[in-house]
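An instance as discussed:

___
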Amino acid sequence: MEKSQIAKGIMAGLIIVHGHTFAAENEGESVFSPLTITDNPLAEKNQVGSSEESYTRPGAYSSRTLNKNLQSLDASLRSMAGTYTQIDPLQGSISVNIRGMNGLGRVNTMVDGVTQTYFGMAPANYHGGANTAAGVPLDPNFLAEVDVTRGSSAGSQGVNALAGSANMRTIGIDDVLREGRQAGVLSRFSVGDNGLGRTGMVAVAGKTDTFENGGALGALVGISGRRTYATYKNGGGRSSEDFIGEDNKYLRQEPRSQLYKLNFNPDQFNKIEFSGRNYSNSFTRRDITSDDYALRYNYAPLNELVELNLLASTSRGNQAYKPESLYNFNSSSTTNKSNAIDISNTSRFKMSEDLFTVFQVGGKLMDTRYTRRFVQNTETDHNAFAPAGKQKISSLYSSLTLNKDIYQLDLNLNYTRSQVTGYKPACGDNEKCFPQGESHLKLDNTDVNPSATFSAQVAPWLQPFVSWSRSSRAPNVQEVFFANEGGASMNPFLKPEKAETWEAGFNINKQGLLHEQDSFHLKALAYRSRIKNYITSESFFLCHDGRLCQDIDNASDSFNANIYINVPSTVTATGYEIEAGYDIGFAYANLSWSKQHTDQPTSIASTVYSFAYSDLSDLPDSYATLDVGGRLFDRRLTVGSLVKFTGKTKRLSTEGISLDSNTVPKEDMPNIPTIIDLYSTWQATDNVQLRLSVQNVTNRDYAEALNRMNQSVDYARAGTSVNTTARGRTWIFGGEIQF
């Protein structure tokens, strides 16, 4: 079937179901499918599922429960198929990578459903210059679960999400309270050697009895803090002071975080939640704050044509730089503010005797602004410090799920309008650009993104599926208004990226595979994505006639603009993903494995000489995590091991920009050894759980994939190697107390 026919079919289906809904209303009757009843009026809806949900949903979906075996948030995300992280020791934030795509809009990273727009810029760098990255500054101790959807543009989470989305859920009232309790405390702590430092979190929660009308009231308050050090030893016993250089004294962190939630349910049909999350940190010669506030409302009367959900949020991030932390900039600071509202309604009904339907329609608005403040010793518009501008995303989305017999068809349609606006300074008299004078640019684009997933429960244990999706993401402020050569380096014609993704795979869920009490789960799939208008930056010179060109022999040696452009060729990404789990009670094994390839180009702005935007995001050729363990003493003691395999990996050339091609080449990293972690968990009492872990137990000496520290050690001491920057053997002790 042609792509246009698929899109028309999806839209026709949405029109048809709307017609059936209208007809049912005119007939004066409503048809109800079974209701799910919970005795907890404060239970949150649409939360991230448990890890077992990975194997029950058709499509590329993974879920993890966090804070169980003393693994870092980076390690937990890297244990998912097709999912990775960009590690930057200078940022102090989490940056999710999906299938080799990373950054604002390529991955929609959310906390409790709120899209994160923080863009960090570290003034200090172990290899000189400054570097930047999109990420989420947060305390992992507050997290309960994370789920990742890859290759889908469906629903609110698919708005302005090229490769997929990641949603991290913070702890709620029911995570703190023990069953049957109305008040409680949850505390988490850990302490580690080799520079890991210590962490601690305390959350207090309480709730009332259920009101006579079915309502309730509950609240949660949590505080958390940690201290981590930059000084550690690699597997060879060498101190990080040798290869981090002078930045070592700026990398000690003591972030502080607070979490607040107030749940008020006026009755059994209305649920309201106010939430707030604060984060503050001071390192790399800057003071960082990040604050999120959200209002959630759910209205679910005894009418299955109506379930209304509203999410209104406001976020603010600020970075204030210490004096002399940036060359030529004094009293500098950057701020990002984002306001969003997301509203939707879900209807459930029968279109015929054996055709069950779920129909959702909604809209989402996001208004994000990046501002900067600085005083220059020498005034110039030619600087790439924290590009300023505004991005506005407006979207309408709908989904239709049809269930008949063993078959399920999910149809989705997103309409998105993006607007990017900001100031462009005038170009020089000898520079030809458009517009020539100073102006306020406005890039306005619309995209229609349909998607479809078909699955069949051909056996109680087997569910094959196939999906097709179109997705897009708008240019970012940091790309459009990048200004290392002022207005001449800005591109007013930058277009959104567009991706088309096919997936095919199957889920297996089998109870009693080898023993009547065991369970086996498997998700396996293959995918292929083709990306048009891929955005990257290239180097341009000023030819003698005033035009921009790439002929260095016919150009001025005083001008070199790094301009973000749309690549004319199509970028292709292909891969295979497997997640599997087997549990027999006294023992278990979980495996994730990915193999992928992409031909996406590098970005000239990735170099530290251009504030290090757009780092390399190619995933390793293959990688896997094997988690095996056993449960002893009535399952009060768990002992396990994580085996982490990483295949061939690339990085940006340690030689920097190639003079022959005027690009930043990719180069192969040395082989990364298999890393083994050991962990144990002991349920000492009903209220106390203690944990112990040894990471990199064999003390291997290596460099991690997609870690900025494997790029260059220009300012390190003689004899150090860029290939041995990973942490050596490390012990961690921690626990959780709940009462």
